[in-house]
Amino acid sequence: AAWLGINIFLFTYYFLFFDRDERYFYTRAILGSALAWARASAKCLNFNSMLILLPVCRNLLSFLRGTCSCCRRTLRKQLDHNLTFHKLVAYALALLTAVHTIAHLFNLERYNHSQQATDGSLPAVLSKMHLQGSNKWLNPIHSNRTTVEYVAFTTIPGLTGVIITLALILMVTSSTEFIRRNYFEVFWYTHHLFLIYFAGLVIHGIAGLVRGQTEESMEEVHPHRCAQYLTKKDEDCSHDCCKDPEFGSIPTESWKWVLAPLLLYTFERILRVWRSRQKVVVTKVVMHPARVLELQMQKKGFHMEVGQYIFVNCPAISLLEWHPFTLTSAPEEDFFSIHIRAAGDWTERLIDTFQQQNAEMPRIEVDGPFGTASEDVFQYEVAMLVGAGIGVTPFASILKSIWYKFQQADQTLKTKKIYFYWLCRDTGAFAWFNDLLASLEQKMAESGKADFLTYRLFLTGWNTSIANNVALHFDTTTDTVTGLRHKTIFGRPMWNSEFAAVAAAHPRSVVGVFLCGPGSLAKSLQKSCHQHSSLDPRKVKFYFNKENF
């Protein structure tokens, strides 16, 4: 809301400014209100270009999340929406670019029309002033044969404008959900056109095709006093307005807006490169069912918190591609691990590379770790953890850490109750996580806290053979699908019932709801959080948190 308000204020302020500023009196005589539209959108473009890189400075966000004392729950939750904000700013840039481009197309048409006019009107007289001296021109089109296309592709502002617009179009269109999911490489490489975008933005205003009257000239021949004499000037003129006005370019300001973010982002990238070059040792490789690869690694100086994620690169597959993976290990362990599901060309090739027998272990580079919403799980007395498929990975880290805290009899643990929900399409996906849940069940029973963790496993895809097998062994003490004490539920959760039960069990608690899963599930959970949160601050309140990377 603050970002939107600033954009509206900037656009309105500069629209009125350029529509009334006396330095642009003669410019408006040729261009009309299109000048204000072009300049106001340019100011907003500069503002949003300043912001676009900040949400993807992952080290900055992790610093704010983890070490800044002013980052309370509300602000920390805002940091979790960094990618959403990045997309909003990108859409705003696309819209403002369209407004800016259309306004300048109108400007060029009016410049061209004024240059060709022979009616002695003020725009016609102003357009011929280039014949009287190099500093006197106001209209950049000096010939009747000059076309709009010629100006667009032969001048610095025109050419850089075309390049900027094409780069922005490619970046926005390749960022759609479909492209990112199915052709990640296209998204990855086209997004690096931001280098061309910023280079073009800085250069764009250097030539200064849009001009205004200079301060010195205004003191001598103010437009309100002297404009009327331009169209009816006598050869033996002797009054104060005989001298022709002089014009100068509007100073370029884009570099002032984007310099600090570019320096910050450059430092961010240097830090990433330095960290990624540090040696990573793969200590263990495990192939789980459903083509899920587990990598256990060690790296000097690596420190993590629960729910964090890292970026992984395998130079043997691609030198430039980096992909995010949530850490599944606990901070208490002497290694860090990730679980990789086959979900695209890069992951398929990585799994195939590690599956090759008698092959040399491929080199892995790691950047991170970076903070996420799941870091805050131990800040809540009650937590609801919801994972869909491989989206269970951040909660593996959390549950492992809880196991270690019980082992060490940690008295500082604020969390009193955890509800864990895991939704899977096939039974094979449960296999790699079963051992952890089984050991947690046993440890909590031994500690007299068997009710600390309540988990529900939902199988959303099954066939008749699975259903018949479950029916035959319905009375057994352990589940036939997972071997755990809690029985697998066939179908999807009834979230209203689940939230109502949690609210009834904890009527005065603050409940953190954490999701790693698809957007459709996020909407359902967010809706349930609003419906079941009490308006009374003394009663139950649900706070929704979603993984974004």
Keyword list:
48% helix, 6-stranded parallel β-sheet, Elongation Factor Tu (Ef-tu), domain 3, Rossmann fold, 549 residues, 3-stranded antiparallel β-sheet, alpha/beta, 21 helices
Write down the overall mean pLDDT: 82
Helix % is 40-55%
Shape assignment: elongated
Query: Structural class per helix/strand content?
Result: alpha/beta
Q: How many domains comprise the coordinates?
A: 3
Number of helices: 21
The radius of gyration is: 31 Å
Number of beta strands: 14
Describe what this molecule looks like in 3D.
Residues 266-376 form the FAD-binding FR-type domain. The chain has 549 residues and is an alpha/beta fold. It has 3 domains: 1-231 and 243-271, no CATH class; 279-354 and 363-370, Elongation Factor Tu (Ef-tu), domain 3; 373-463 and 482-547, Nucleotide-binding domain of ferredoxin-NADP reductase (FNR) module (Rossmann fold), CATH 3.40.50.80. The chain is 48% helix and 15% strand. It contains 21 helices and 14 strands. The strands form 4 sheets. The protein has a 6-stranded parallel β-sheet, with helices on both faces. Strands 3-4-7 form a 3-stranded antiparallel β-sheet, with helices on one face. Strands 6-5-8 form a 3-stranded antiparallel β-sheet. Strand 11, helix 19 and strand 12 form a beta-alpha-beta unit. It is elongated.
